Amino acid sequence: MSTMHRITFQQDKITYDAEEGQWLYDVCEAAGASIPFACKAGACGTCATQMVQGKESLGPQRAREIRTLESKGLDPSQYRLLCLADVHGPLTLGASAQPQRATAPLGVCTVRVKEYRPLTLTVCEQRFAVESGEIIFSPGQYMIFHVPGIDRVIRRSYSISSHSSDRTQFEICVRAVSGGFCSNFIHRLRPGDCIQVEGPYGDFRLADGSQRDILMIATGTGISPIKSMLLSLLGQTGTRRIRLFFGLRNVSDLFYPKILSDLRETYPWFEPTIILSQPDPIGWPGLRGRVTDLIREQVSADEASNTDAYLCGGRPMIEEAKRLLIHKGMKVDRIRHENFF
Predict the structure, then answer these.
(1) Which pLDDT score, from 0 to 100, does residue 1 have?
(2) Contacts of 142 by beta carbon, 8 Å cutoff, 6+ apart
(3) How far apart are CA 172 and CA 162, in angstroms?
């Protein structure tokens, strides 16, 4: 017989007896607790909850969990992400960092691959058609894919890269990571294949009502939500300056150059800049270095004071970019970012 542990939800004034090793997400659902969940993979921070007693039974925190909590301004010694934890002892949970239960317009639904487009040897763009209902999302949001594993479903988040006006389909940009089960599974999907998804989720969105200039900074497939934002912004009336700093390693990693060039031709106030950090000695006539070099060289203090910034890529890039932009005079609340761990 399984060992049982008492889980107390102070916020909801309920208790639940959970089995040893039971996933805390399942415990919350079974108990009817109001703690919200979204990505269920430790990336979004939605399920961050205060620990009152028994936090030692959850074991040590992994680096990913600590990064997510800190990115939300939460103390990792006081909060845990319940989607990353299993029950191994009695536990008392306090207030959720986000007390309202998250909702997903689509819930869990089936989508079908409509088009597969290879962009490089390792990066592709997949277009999915929604089998029933509509997808209504804000540029910058992501979908959670339910990837069938050997003995369980694995949930992974992928940002939407397409225009938000089409409610019958959406696109994502995926890099097949060496040894990455989920990214390779999705990379191998072909037209006609189906997979379950849920969403959209995410707070990485365009600022409402702002008429300030825009600076977007992306590395690798971090361009995905940025592309969705660009397509939305450039279709609006107005000609405020929109700049994109897009960083990649070398020429073989380069994708979306024609899309960016075409947008530049159509919208003269859009200024894309591509920079490669490790290009071959010959064969690349463009800029060399890191995207953060472009902040140092091409963003003045006057520009920073009247600009909204949107950053997406690896955590080290985002942290350095934020530091440089703030040093240039940009207000911290005008910098929005999405970490691709």
Answers:
(1) 60
(2) 39, 157, 158, 159, 160, 199, 200, 201, 202, 225
(3) 7
Domain final residue pick, 63, 96, 129: 96
- Residue 200's closest CA among 111, 126, 113, 119? 111
Whole-angstrom CA distances from 58 to 86, 90, 303 are 7, 10, 47
Predicted confidence at residue 237, as pLDDT, reads: 64
Tell me the CA distances in angstroms from 144 to 9, 205, 236, 271, one per residue in order.
Answer: 27, 17, 28, 31
| Cβ-Cβ contacts under 8 Å for 205 (sequence gap 6 or more) | 138, 139, 140, 141, 336
Q: Are residues 39 and 80 in the same domain?
A: yes
The DSSP call for residue 160 is B
* Closest listed residue to residue 244, CA positions, set 222, 96, 266: 222
CATH number at residue 63: 3.10.20.30
d(CA 30, CA 18): 9
Helix (H/G/I), strand (E/B), else coil: 170: strand
The radius of gyration of the chain from alpha carbons, rounded to an integer in Å, stands at: 21
Look at the chain and report how many structural domains it folds into. 3
User: How is the beta sheet containing 287-288 ordered, strand by strand?
Assistant: 287-288, 270-276, 242-248, 213-219, 307-313, 335-339
- The per-residue pLDDT of the chain, averaged, comes to 90
Residue 225, pLDDT above cutoff 90: yes
Residue 38 pLDDT greater than 90, yes or no: no
Q: Where are the alpha helices (DSSP H) in 270-333?
A: 291-298, 301-305, 315-328
For 185, the enclosing helix (H) or strand (E) is: helix 181-187
DSSP, collapsed to helix, strand or coil, labels residue 1 as coil
Pairing between β-strand 153-159 and β-strand 142-148 as defined by DSSP bridges: antiparallel
- Cα torsion angle, 317, 319, 323, 328, sign: positive
